[in-house]
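Our preliminary data section would be incomplete without showing what the modeling component actually yields. Below, a chain of 253 amino acids is followed by its predicted structure, encoded as C-alpha cells that our downstream tools consume directly.
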Amino acid sequence: MMNFNFIINQSYFNFVSCYKTKIQMTNFYSREDKLFVAVDCIILGFKDHEINVLIIKRKFDPLKGGRSLMGGFVREKEALNDTVTRVVAEYTGVENMYMEQVGTYGEIERDLGERVITIVYYALIDMEKFDEKLQKKHDAEWININDVGTLVLDHNQILTDTIKLLQRRTATRPVGFNLLPEKFTLPQLQSLYEAIYQKSLDKRNFRKKVLEMDILERLEEKDKSSSKRGAYLYKFNKEKYDSLLEEGFYFSL
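Predicted structure:
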C-alpha cells in the first residue's frame, strides 16, 4: 500500500532543497552598491576618580599610527552583538560586560579607505578585571576622557556623543555600578558619579538619595585604605532593584 504521507514529505523536502540551492546560486542584490559594515567600541573604565577610555594606535592604513577607538568589521556569518563582544574581549579579556548601542555613523567620507558604515557601542568594565597583557599586546592605553586629544576619523565626535548618552543613562538607570568593583564605598560611588557628570555633588544630598532608594546592601566590612576609621563597603542589590522596578520604582540619581 502506498504511503502518501511519505510521498508528500519527500516532495516537500526536495522542493526546499532545490529552493535553498537556487538561493545560494542567485545574487539577488548584484545591482546594488557594496559597502562595509563595522562596529566601533568605546570601552570605558573608572579609576582614581576619573572616567577613562581605552585608546590604541591604529595598526593599518589609512591613518596608520593614529589614535583610535577599538573597532572591527562585521563578519559574514556573525551577528552584530557577537561582533561587539568579540572586539571588546579581544582588547580587554572581559566577556561579560554592560554594553549599549550609541548610534550609527554613515557620512559618505567618514572613512578614507572605503565606504564604511559603523554601528557604535559603549562598554563599561571594571578596570580591575582588565587584562594588562592585552594592553601591551595592542599598544593600548587608558586615557582620561577629557585628555584624549585628536582621534582618527570621526572618533572624537563618537566619544562626545557616548559621554552625553552615559550621563543620561546613569541619571535614570543604575548602569554606573558596572564601572565599580562588586564591593565599594559610598565615597567611591559619589566619586564615580562626579566623574561621569563632571561636576561636584553635595555629599549629604548624594548619600541621602542613594540610601533612600534602598537598592544597596551594606556589608559588615570596611575599607580602611584612606582612614583608620574606615568606610563601610556596599553591594548593589540587583534582585532588589528588579523587584522594585516591577512595583513602579523610578531610579534617579
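The chain has a mean pLDDT of 90. The chain has two domains: 36-170, 180-246. Preliminary results of this kind motivate Aim 1 of the renewal.
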